[in-house]
Amino acid sequence: AQSVTQLDSHVSVSEGTPVLLRCNYSSSYSPSLFWYVQHPNKGLQLLLKYTSAATLVKGINGFEAEFKKSETSFHLTKPSAHMSDAAEYFCVVATLYNFNKFYFGSGTKLNVKP
Amino acid sequence: NAGVTQTPKFQVLKTGQSMTLQCAQDMNHEYMSWYRQDPGMGLRLIHYSVGAGITDQGEVPNGYNVSRSTTEDFPLRLLSAAPSQTSVYFCASSYSPGAATGELFFGEGSRLTVL
After folding, report:
1. Could you tell me which chain A residue has the CA closest to the CA of B50?
2. Which residues, 6+ apart, have CB-to-CB distance to B21 below 8 Å?
3. Which of B26, B34, B8, B24 is CA-nearest to residue B113?
4. Which helix (H) or strand (E) covers residue A68, if one does?
5. pLDDT for B63-89, tens place per residue?
6. Considering all CA atoms of chain A, what is the largest pairwise distance in Å, rounded to the nearest integer?
7. Are A45 and A38 in contact (CB under 8 A)?
8. Chain B contact for A46, CB < 8 A?
9. Among partner residues B58, B97, B102, which is closest to A49 by beta-carbon distance?
10. Does A72 touch chain B (CB under 8 A)?
11. Per-residue pLDDT tens for A38-61?
């Protein structure tokens, strides 16, 4: 079975400081992992994905995530937050054996203070 | 450059009424899916399709029907709406369901309220 746990429902940072959004996953098979972002009243957009290549994945807008199998984690980071990063972020898992289903975490709302 | 188009954007129903949420994509994607988004629960898969004529259930299929007669369209039907179906619904499509690109393209959502 596959599942995702996002450890923080809300994260608040100041503009210019680092961002860390935490995600742990559970998967019976080799996972593919994704981060999506949702701005208010919008659909979701892919930030980055891990599909068994390099464990450090770079995405759009300066975000990156590291796949750590031993810790079953896929945390999202950014060195310096911008006001435009304020949004909700979703960690998602799928498996190589059943790519038809994506399992979403419950989301982390990022607030960026000026 | 339409991408994934959902209609309507907003809808209010009374308990027991039926309606169809429309989803259309112009990217020739084989994979299409419907999710519902509820506060604190992320997105949950309702139904999905891997091509015309092929559909399957997701995590929360009860109360919803789908069909896929063309590659472009994947409507979601509520036969007898219940207040528990009040939610924001998202349609998403993908060229390849995960393996090749892993990218789901989302519509902007349909907000449904059932009174």
Report:
1. A100
2. B6, B7, B8, B11, B34, B75, B76, B77, B78, B89, B91, B110, B112
3. B8
4. strand A64-68
5. 999 999 999 999 999 999 999 999 999
6. 44
7. yes
8. yes
9. B102
10. no
11. 998 888 999 999 877 788 999 999
